[in-house]
């Protein structure tokens, strides 16, 4: 049943602080500029004002009532009982209950609740609280700044220090306003063009850093310290007596996750696909929407002219699966199918650059996602749900059981599950590939991949980067040091796989979610990133997710009766962006012209292998050529290269083509 409504949690989308750690007045000269930098886009007023030794500014999520435009409002900031001045971007889950536990008035908002928690629990407060937040505290008497980001915190924080002068903000644009450099970090550029996102602290801009998820940073005049307070390796094992107990525990936490995600929302939309993750979340959401409110579901479909050419294990059109779910919940789900034929590659990209000071990964990704958020905003929705962490929680596939059972000596279980797989290859092949290979050290995996000729040269296939720039920028060395050259799709344990997926989810997602919120006025929330749910599922044994050859066994049991059987038992996967060949073919001439124009930009031409990309685009046979090799050379390499080139030119104040 829906949780009892409490006081609405009115929270901040953006925060920024400029502080002289030695008590100087440097912040006075940039505080108002920094506050003005937060005012761009669709959100609320900016509260701004001086503090002892610095300046604070915070922008509320919700726009002002009526037709009034947002504005900067001069504010006096108050310290808590331990002397801290506190700001918080994001939300604290179960806010009313948390405030009762802390014995504080919820009308003070999340920042004061966080300050009270820190005053009571010290640095353990981030383990006591659950939420999606980044908090910044300034202790003037200690000359110390504390920044903490929750383990599933999609509210970013960027930091720049110039000696004893510290600037921290949700978006780099506020750092620029305070005097931070806006020059692109070529190490970051090289890493991203090799799809190396293992350094979550590095920023796109020289001299800036990001605060990582599950991280606390402490800054004082002498320097700073950083510690990570949560990881999947530290999750405690979860063991119950019966298989049914696992399902019941996840059912309870799914309900609490939806209560937390829906708290403070006004009208809710959702990215709804034909998969277990989003349909499972939707089934819990409709039970908890207040007052019989309908869930506004949005599903991306391929363009009409795109033929259905999915391989046997995939499907392109998810509309039948979505309609089947809507039929189970009449009058509770409003379906909206979005084909976005009018959306061109790169539409609104410059606006995303402007709002977030951050690029998406690929020009092609927005063809499906942007029209959905735009439609949700037009329908009056202020929140859109997703199920981005679903695969690492309730719908985990369990395939890391194979190497785990081998390490544990559970050979009977291992062989039983290998035989039960729907796989035409021999048992010996399955044993080697699924159980042995993930347990080998990276060097051995790389040698085997080389002998099997399964490795590909990124500089002739999926990376748009020139090999000489990759070498000179150190990107190749960092790629190898990160073990990515030997990486496979299979990992040795559930903790390792989840840690990698978790880190990947925070690569660009937080910055882009902030940009979308500012661009469209719609905040993104993921109930599957609810930390108690994440820890519960991560602590379970693999045999709760893989049993008798059936992957995602937990999800299929949990969702029985909640979603259509055609979805619950579906073994194929939906293909998002399946119409990429039609989109690239339609815009081939424009892309050729852009690549030719970029040849005249020396800053771009020394990074991106423009002749190779142009040659691959000309040689491509068109929509009929939809192999993995075609996708690597066209959608991945060209899409990523165009995006990087546009961001380089935008950041260097040139016109975006």
Automatic annotation (TrEMBL):
GO terms for molecular function: asparagine synthase (glutamine-hydrolyzing) activity. Transmembrane segments: none annotated. Signal peptide: none annotated. Residues 250-594 form the Asparagine synthetase domain. It comes from the Bacteria. This is Asparagine synthase. One of its GO terms (biological process) is asparagine biosynthetic process. It comes from Tsuneonella dongtanensis.
